[in-house]
């Protein structure tokens, strides 16, 4: 009986694994066709200036509207796209779409100063990245100052010397780069000195327990201080409470991003949000100054 049970267990795992592998394959095949079928979408999450709450930009975040699964999170499909070797195409689509969107906004007088676009490691390390990006921006008639690129610490650390060269070339074309999820990777503080980046994004995990956590308060303070000394702008991600906002604004955090202000929104909803935001950007501790929109 034990032997039979063992065999059944084995068969069970076998089938479960097969099922998972098949699901994964169909997921991958779906993903390959998603862009062509118009199922990919960019959502935009506003970034506010720390001191007066004015809109300073928005981060573009990929969404997949799957016909059966609904809205699929990038945390689920970006790793699949990476494994399937189609992340570069997805990323390129995202950049083209973000450029098209900001051009459209600006043409219609919707005051979004800048859009940040996430780059995968593979995209960033592609030798022709600069050509690809500048071509996309030229086609959309978007000046480089309207686009900020985000790379993660681990992307840079895959090849630090190559990253320095790539960042220099991007900078020559007026493209600013933000270091995303700062503090979660393995870069040394010394690397920050040599990497020609413009913006540091303090990871959500350091924001989450502010201001109550003394350790996190110390880390946030140190990062903001260091960034200022190095001449980098700081963006805090994952700001969810007024107390976090007040703490980070008092620290001198240049930009704030988080559910407190807005979740990532479809482009049309960003416009509606902006109209509402116009009314209350100046409220809070630093009321009185006119929001620049
Ligand atoms: P990320 O670049 O660090 O983006 C910030 C993530 O934090 C977003 O998740 C956003 O929805 C979430 N977030 C923002 N504010 C808050 C908050 O107050 N509380 C909480 N709990 N979460 C907040 P999302 O949209 O699910 O994206 C996840 C990750 O997927 C991104 O992290 C980025 O690494 C990746 N991703 C998204 N779009 C792209 C893309 O176009 N290309 C590449 N390569 N990666 C992308
Ligand atoms: Mg990002
Ligand atoms: Mg981030
Ligand atoms: Mg993050």
UniProtKB/TrEMBL annotation:
Residues 24-278 form the EAL domain. This is Diguanylate cyclase DosC. It comes from Aromatoleum petrolei. The chain holds residues 436 to 728 of 738 of the full protein.
